[in-house]
Amino acid sequence: MKRIGVTGHRAIPGELTDFVRDGLRALLGAHEGPLEALSCLAEGADQIFADIALECGADLTVVIPSGDYEQTFADPDALDRYRRLKARAAQEVRMDHARSTDEAYYAAGAFIADACDRLVAVWDGRPARGRGGTGDIVAYARSLGKPVTVIWREGVRRD
């Protein structure tokens, strides 16, 4: 079974949403054979990836960074999507962190990078804004020699 993990920004500019969806559909839809998709189900890239992976017939593995993770969702719609996607997961992995800290996010991202055969990054190429951000996880995956597919349109900046 091939394992594809995701890291990406929570806030994706509206002008980029269709581009990201199309890129993820092309990547996940082209895969033949059993597929496992790994995601933390954070708002934005993680949820879009998980939704498309399930559409493509992948088994979803949810990696939960901390015990209080649900409290980090400020948007009720994002929390609802998180719960809906989590309920459809084939497997759940919980990191050993009580609180949602940068270290918890880094641990979850590193777990995904360690476990996957390929990492897909919905990433603007800029450094992470806090430890465990997308840039850190991309750098970690690359340090392991993992292939990383970046989905982002050049010239588009996130807020």
Overview of the molecule:
This protein has 159 residues and is of the alpha/beta class. The protein has one domain: Rossmann fold. It is 38% helix and 19% strand. Strands 4-3-2-1-5-6 form a six-stranded parallel sheet, with helices on both faces. The chain starts with a strand and ends in a 9-residue tail after the last strand. The mean pLDDT is 95.
Question: Care to give the gist of this entry?
Answer:
The chain has 159 residues and is an alpha/beta fold. Helices cover 38% and strands 19% of the residues.
* CATH topology annotation: Rossmann fold
The span between the termini is: 37 Å
- Give the helix tally: 5
The assigned CATH architecture is: 3-Layer(aba) Sandwich
Q: Which CATH class?
A: Alpha Beta
Total number of strands: 6
> What overall form do the CA principal axes indicate?
globular
Major sheet attributes = 6 strands, parallel
Question: Which keywords apply here?
Answer:
Rossmann fold; single chain; 159 residues; alpha/beta; globular; 6 strands
Produce the secondary structure layout:
Layout: E1 2-8, H1 17-29, E2 35-39, H2 45-55, E3 59-64, H3 76-87, E4 91-94, H4 102-115, E5 118-122, H5 134-143, E6 148-150
Parallel strand pairs: 1-2, 1-5, 2-3, 3-4, 5-6
